[in-house]
Each structure stands twice: as C-alpha cells, then as structure tokens.
C-alpha cells in the first residue's frame, strides 16, 4: 500500500518537473499563444458566440486585444471603463507572477520528493522489521 503511494507521488513529481521544464522551454511562445487566443475569442465575441472575452475583460479590467478600437463602434460595457487592451494586461500579469509560480512549483517538487523518500524509508523499515 505504501509502495503504491510512493509510486503515485513519484508520478506527481514527474508531472511537476515536466510542467516546470515546459514552462521554461516555451516561455517565449506564451505571448503569441495568448494573443492568438484573445484574437480568436474577440472574433467569437463580435459574432455573439462567446462570453469568454467578456469574462477576460471583467477579470483583467481591460478592453479588446489592443484596446476599444478592436470593437469599432460596437464596443462592450467594459470598454467604457477601461481603455487598455487585454493582451498587455495579461502579459503584465504573467511577468509579475511568473517568479512566484516558479517558486511554488519548485516547492511542490521538493515537498513531493521528500514525501517519496520518506515513503521509501518507511517501506524499507517495515521490510527490515518483518525480516527480524
């Protein structure tokens, strides 16, 4: 049972390390992916198919991808209050919190590794006790 626990925690550890490495390797592609996603959602929002852009604008207190001009004369209520584009706001947020996210992910990885080692020590102790 404890061995199964250690294996499951090891899988979580591997996933955590993978997320850290992928985040580091693809960090230069993230701004383009965000901009592409925002442009796609803006087009859906203009056509009336998506509420995602409204949610993003409400959450980040922004308007459109680059600003109210993205909507032309049919801008949303958010654009009456906010003139900064969502792309810039989201990029600023990512830059502001990227170190914190990295430290948290690294902390989780270290804690997970300590859990694996502890479980392995307990399993070893149980086996040596059973042998006596």
TrEMBL record:
Species this protein is from: Hymenolepis diminuta (Rat tapeworm)
InterPro entries in the record: Tetraspanin/Peripherin, Tetraspanin_EC2_sf
Subcellular location: Membrane
Annotated keywords: Membrane, Transmembrane, Transmembrane helix
Pfam families named in the record: Tetraspanin
CDD domains: tetraspanin_LEL
Membrane-related topology note: Multi-pass membrane protein
A GO term from the CC aspect: plasma membrane
Keyword Nuclease: no
Transmembrane domains' residue ranges: 6-26, 99-126
Domain of life: Eukaryota
Protein name: Tetraspanin
Organismal lineage: Eukaryota, Metazoa, Spiralia, Lophotrochozoa, Platyhelminthes
């Amino acid at each position: 049972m404890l061995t199964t626990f250690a294996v499951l925690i090891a899988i979580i550890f591997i996933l955590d390390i993978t997320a850290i490495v992928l985040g580091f390797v693809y960090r230069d592609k993230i701004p383009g992916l965000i901009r592409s996603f925002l442009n796609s959602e803006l087009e859906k929002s203009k056509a009336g198919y998506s509420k995602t852009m409204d949610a993003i604008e409400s959450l980040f207190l922004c308007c459109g991808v680059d600003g109210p001009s993205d909507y032309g004369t049919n801008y949303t209520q958010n654009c009456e209050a906010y003139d900064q584009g969502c792309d810039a706001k989201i990029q600023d947020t990512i830059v502001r919190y990227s170190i914190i996210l990295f430290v948290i992910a690294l902390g989780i990885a270290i804690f997970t590794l300590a859990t694996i080692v502890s479980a392995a020590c307990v399993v070893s102790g149980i086996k040596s006790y059973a042998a006596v």
